[in-house]
Design brief:
There is one protein chain. The chain has 146 residues and is mainly α. This is DUF2269 family protein. Keywords: Membrane, Transmembrane, Transmembrane helix.
Amino acid sequence: MNYYYGAIVFAHVVSAIISVGPLFLLLPLIRRLRTAKAEAEDIYLAFIRVIIRLVMHSGHVLVVSGILLILFGPWPWHTSWVVLTIGVMLLSGFFLATGFSSVLKKFHESGNDRDAVVNKLQRTAWIYIGLLMVMLWLMVQKPAVW
């Protein structure tokens, strides 16, 4: 059983790295998107969509492996850090599903201020990075809040 638990921990850590790491690639892409011409803009947006899709799918592995770790590990579901992690996870899942897609759709809508859309995309990236960092802190520190 310890071998399987160790494998699940490894999958959980790798999926956490893949969930957070590529988001930092968004920041230079967004900076370049500010001055990109129309032809290059579509390429940058395609890269951003790939990064978000990678983060989303690694998040699925993260959630499944996290559930398995709680089921087979020493922590009960009602532990404060588990409850808080689930809450932040639900918030970040909702945010990823709605935040990035709505901003990316605005790039090709007429009448939108391009700089405002880029600023919103950058703000969305930082908010999502912040949510994932809070989740990572909860999983690593395992604070006893109550």
